[in-house]
């Protein structure tokens, strides 16, 4: 067994011989080269030779799943026994199934041949750029890596997808320091399929570095008001994914606690809001080509002009509830831009905050949230004023999505998502 | 159990090099309203090497555990260290020595069959569904993980260690009068294999009854009045306060990155009542929740006293940062997977108990909150922290009032700790969480009930 396909074929055959009526298998292997910068200095180079096999067996409607990272025959034989044993111990669930056969396909995406020296040089250049252009910034940690992976998905219905992909992944945490004073830390990550551009020019990096320098001196907000909040693309992904997780995902739709459980096709948000997941969009680096359940991925709308078009359900949850399954299981979010610039959006905000990072408790299924506004600024009379500290915000995510005043025409692409700035109303801002 | 293939390579390890074979296992069963939505077993194992040269590290790992692959991994780590050293030329000296020795395995390596976990979950689910039919939803999640490491180092202590943990998480959801869902969860369990930690499902019934009672109170609960308030934190919150608000800022790599602790060593950062320690393996005469005897750089582990009587007295270090700060390395370098490099991590971090009684602490507050359960927490290098609070009560005129809905508290650690004026005379440990810092890591945390002032979110 030398290739991932040979390994997957062997594992499926072994699962069937061991009694599985249906089975699926995902075999992956690849290599990662990673450079670490700590406290502004190179600290580590790391090379990982990765491999894994995940297999699922259905035995009389009972499911077992196992993942191991060794691909030799003995390890796979042991994993097959373990998988069958786990399934045999489970309970019958008619909703369990494997994907039907579609047209099989091989996919290739991203950069397949890395340039280790160029990556090192780009990181060095990034460190120099930060030092020269943003002298108060300390790069607390920067992890830059090239990853390549070859994945093979097969199941006993004859599904067979191969996906070969490679990308650069740059993530940095940083803060600004001036004597004994420092800003909050902030972090930002991007996926790249080429090293043609300077790292510092990608996504929101320049904006966030500059803003961190302006966050060394902060003012705790005194008092409490209900006002507006501009959520930046750096923060919007977390907010949207949290809302989708609470209101549209497997667990809350299966148990019926989602407030949106009967809202498919109905208005759940402001008509200014459209949210899609588009792993196949060319702006996304190495997006998903097939789901973990073995369905070929397609772009999908979740909310269109405020109307809930789709939940984000797995095939299992779909069969359990009767609602359609999601066409992909990616995190490649797109929020449709508006027609107003960020500058105009800010001018239209009489009293509120510009929110770059939200550090909060896990919101309730009813959508209630509260937490600290991090790396954020006060907006007064249409102008960004003081950087904030010790300032909390609270509200309800359902109310928030229905209280959109405007969406910016500016968008930011970080390789994972393409997102605008959104001005929301009705958020409680409180300080000491 | 991992076969020892690494120690024969000890003589080949150059400069400072660590060679580590490791197996991580995860066993998971999740029942959602009687459906098994997760029935998963996973195992990640392999070998890694890390070499220090002139101020930089080279690291490599591979899954295959053979003599041939161990040689390949050592060579790749050396090549990476040489590449970095040739490009950067920091020319730093060798790492400090920490003595030599060997720590053998203290516990047998075992496994638990999935059937045992599924049967346990089914019995718990049956109890809840029969006893509490008015619930909107119930989830029982069983999680067992273990981390076995076999470490050989060029200079330092070799070790064979094992950290198994077993937990049952109970999530209950009820509908409030307005029809909105209200939820509450609690983890049970700790260090050890599942059958060592959980004798039988019935032993959890009283705790489940208690969660249900709290949930019903919460369903009728009120939103907090946002603002800066007097609070008593239950010991459940003290551990996360110790870990998030103070612990992270005292990790030497974050200190070097500019955390608030950099300018506060030797200075008062808390009320004189506060002493905080990152325990290695034994705390207050008993085994700590997750005992660490040798870290992944081969340093023998000992307690790190972070705050003594309100004064910041130390940081948590790896060998390199200890050399930088002129401190003694105390065994805080830990790696999660075989393919992870050691990072500076906490082990068992706790605020030590005081002399007060919980009822006296509550009685001393005219208008505030008693916060009893938390569901997450984050901290900033500035010391600003937040915790999610998923259960608590109003305190009015020294007495407990209505339950509260989910909220968040925040503060700045070294300011907030100065407001601590009472600590209970008991303490509670937990180790159900994973700390996130490039890699996840199981950690223990603990403390007493704490009376202090914090900002609380609400309406």
How would you characterize the overall build of this protein?
The complex is a heterodimer of chains A (about 425) and B (about 450). Chain A has about 425 residues and is an alpha+beta fold. Chain A has helices at about 5-15, 75-90, 115-135, 205-215, 235-245, 250-255, 315-320, 340-345, 395-400; strands at about 20-40, 40-60, 60-70, 105-110, 135-155, 160-180, 180, 185-190, 220, 225-230, 275, 300-305, 305-310, 335, 350-355, 355-360, 370-375, 375-380, 385-390, 390-395, 405-415, 420-430. Chain A is about 20% helix and about 40% strand. In chain A, the strands form three sheets. In chain A, strands 9, 10, 15, 16, 17, 18, 19, 20, 21 and 22 form a ten-stranded mixed sheet that branches. In chain A, strands 1, 2, 3, 4, 5, 6, 7 and 8 form an eight-stranded mixed sheet that branches. Chain A is globular, with a radius of gyration of 24 Å. The model of chain A has no long low-confidence stretch (mean pLDDT about 95). In chain B, strands 1, 2, 3, 4, 5, 6 and 7 form a seven-stranded mixed sheet that branches. Chain B has a six-stranded mixed sheet with strand order 13-12-9-16-25-22, with helices on one face. In chain B, strands 8-17-18-20-26 form a five-stranded mixed beta barrel. Chain B is of the alpha+beta class and about 450 residues long. Chain B is about 20% helix and about 40% strand. Chain B has two domains: about 5-220, PmbA/TldD fold (2-Layer Sandwich); about 225-455, no CATH class. At the A-B interface, strand 2, strand 3, helix 2, strand 5 and strand 6 of A face strand 2, strand 3, helix 1, helix 2 and strand 7 of B.
Features:
heterodimer, A: 432 residues, alpha+beta, PmbA/TldD fold, 2 domains, 10-stranded mixed beta sheet, 8-stranded mixed beta sheet, 22 strands, 22% helix, B: 459 residues, 7-stranded mixed beta sheet, 6-stranded mixed beta sheet
Quick summary:
Chain A has helices at residues 4-17, 73-89, 116-133, 205-213, 233-247, 250-254, 315-321, 342-347, 397-401; strands at 22-38, 41-59, 62-68, 105-110, 137-155, 160-178, 181-182, 186-192, 218-220, 224-231, 275-277, 300-304, 307-308, 333-335, 351-355, 357-360, 368-374, 377-380, 383-389, 392-396, 404-413, 418-430. Chain A is an alpha+beta fold.
């Amino acid at each position: 067994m030398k290739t991932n396909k040979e390994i997957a074929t062997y594992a499926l055959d072994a699962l069937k011989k061991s009694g599985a009526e249906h089975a699926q298998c995902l075999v992956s292997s690849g290599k990662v080269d990673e450079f670490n910068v700590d406290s502004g200095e190179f600290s580590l180079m790391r090379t990982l030779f990765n491999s894994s096999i995940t297999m699922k067996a259905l035995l009389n409607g009972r499911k077992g799943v196992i993942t191991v990272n060794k691909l030799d025959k003995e390890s796979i034989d042991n994993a097959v026994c373990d998988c069958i044993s786990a399934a045999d111990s489970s309970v019958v669930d008619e909703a369990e199934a494997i994907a039907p056969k579609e047209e099989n396909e091989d996919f290739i995406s991203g950069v397949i041949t890395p340039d280790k020296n160029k990556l090192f040089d780009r990181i060095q250049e990034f460190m120099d750029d930060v030092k020269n252009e943003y002298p108060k910034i300390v790069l607390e940690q920067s992890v830059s890596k090239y990853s390549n992976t070859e994945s093979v998905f097969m199941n006993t219905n004859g599904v067979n997808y191969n996906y070969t992909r490679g990308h650069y992944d740059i993530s940095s945490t940083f803060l600004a320091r001036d004597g004994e004073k420092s800003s909050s830390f902030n972090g930002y990550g991007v996926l790249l399929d080429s090293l043609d551009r300077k790292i510092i020019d990608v996504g929101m990096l320049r904006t966030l570095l500059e803003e961190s320098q302006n966050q060394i001196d902060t003012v705790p907000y005194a008092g409490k008001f209900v006002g507006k909040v501009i959520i930046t693309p750096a923060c919007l992904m977390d907010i949207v994914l949290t809302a989708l997780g609470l209101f549209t995902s497997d667990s809350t739709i299966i148990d019926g606690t989602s407030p949106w459980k009967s809202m498919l096709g109905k208005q759940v948000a402001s008509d200014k809001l459209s949210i899609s997941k588009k792993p196949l969009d060319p702006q996304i680096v190495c997006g998903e080509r097939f789901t973990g359940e073995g369905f070929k991925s397609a772009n999908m709308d979740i909310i269109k002009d405020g109307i809930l078009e789709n939940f984000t359900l797995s095939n299992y949850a779909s069969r359990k509830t009767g609602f359609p399954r999601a066409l992909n299981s990616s995190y490649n979010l797109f929020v449709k831009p508006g027609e107003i610039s960020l500058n105009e959006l800010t001018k239209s905000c009489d009293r509120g905050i510009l929110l770059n990072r939200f550090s909060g408790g896990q919101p309730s299924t009813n959508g209630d949230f509260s937490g600290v506004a991090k790396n954020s600024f006060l907006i007064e009379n249409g102008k960004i004023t003081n950087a904030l500290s010790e300032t909390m915000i609270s509200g309800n995510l359902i109310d928030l999505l229905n209280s959109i005043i405007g969406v910016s025409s500016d968008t930011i692409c970080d390789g994972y998502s393409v997102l605008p700035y959104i001005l929301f109303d009705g958020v409680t801002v409180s300080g000491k | 159990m991992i076969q020892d293939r690494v120690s024969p390579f000890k003589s080949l390890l150059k400069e400072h090099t660590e060679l580590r074979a490791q197996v991580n296992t995860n066993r998971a069963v999740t029942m959602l309203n009687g459906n098994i939505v997760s029935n998963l077993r996973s195992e990640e194992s392999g070998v890694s090497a890390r070499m220090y040269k002139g101020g930089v590290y080279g690291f490599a790992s591979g899954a295959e555990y053979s003599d041939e692959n161990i040689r390949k991994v050592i060579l790749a780590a050396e090549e990476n260290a040489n590449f970095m050293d040739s490009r950067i030329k920091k020319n730093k000296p060798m790492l400090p020595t920490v003595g030599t020795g060997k720590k053998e395995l203290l516990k047998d390596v075992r496994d638990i069959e999935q059937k045992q976990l599924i049967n346990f979950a089914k019995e718990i689910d049956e109890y809840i569904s029969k006893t509490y039919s008015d619930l909107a939803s119930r989830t029982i999640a069983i999680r067992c993980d273990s981390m076995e490491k076999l470490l050989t180092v060029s200079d330092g202590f070799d070790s064979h260690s094992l950290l198994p943990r077993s937990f049952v998480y109970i999530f209950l959801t009820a509908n409030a009068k307005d029809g909105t869902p209200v939820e509450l969860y609690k983890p049970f369990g700790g260090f050890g294999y599942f059958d060592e930690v959980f004798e039988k499902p019935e032993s959890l019934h009283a705790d489940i009854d208690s969660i249900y009672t709290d949930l019903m109170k919460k369903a009728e609960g009120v939103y907090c009045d946002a603002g800066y308030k007097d609070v008593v934190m239950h010991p459940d919150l003290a551990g996360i306060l110790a870990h998030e608000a103070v612990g992270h800022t005292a990790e030497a790599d974050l200190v070097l990155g500019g955390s608030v602790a950099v300018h506060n060593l030797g200075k008062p950062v808390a009320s004189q009542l506060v002493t905080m320690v990152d325990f290695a393996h034994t705390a207050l005469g008993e085994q700590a929740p997750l005992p660490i005897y040798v870290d992944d750089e081969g340093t023998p582990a000992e307690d790190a006293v972070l705050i003594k009587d309100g004064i910041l007295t130390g940081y948590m270090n790896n060998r390199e940062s200890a050399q930088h700060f002129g401190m003694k390395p105390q065994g805080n370098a830990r790696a999660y997977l075989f393919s992870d490099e050691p990072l500076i991590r906490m082990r068992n971090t706790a605020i030590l108990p005081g002399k007060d009684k919980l009822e006296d602490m509550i009685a001393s507050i005219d208008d505030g909150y008693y916060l009893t359960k938390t569901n997450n927490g984050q901290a900033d290098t500035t010391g600003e922290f937040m915790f999610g609070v998923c259960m608590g009560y109003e305190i009015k005129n020294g007495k407990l009032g209505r339950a509260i809905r989910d909220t968040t508290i925040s503060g700045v650690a070294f300011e907030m700790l100065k407001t601590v004026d009472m600590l209970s005379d008991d303490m509670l440990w937990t180790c159900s969480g994973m700390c996130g810092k490039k890699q996840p890591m199981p950690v223990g945390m603990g403390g007493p009930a704490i009376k202090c002032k914090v900002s609380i979110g609400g309406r």
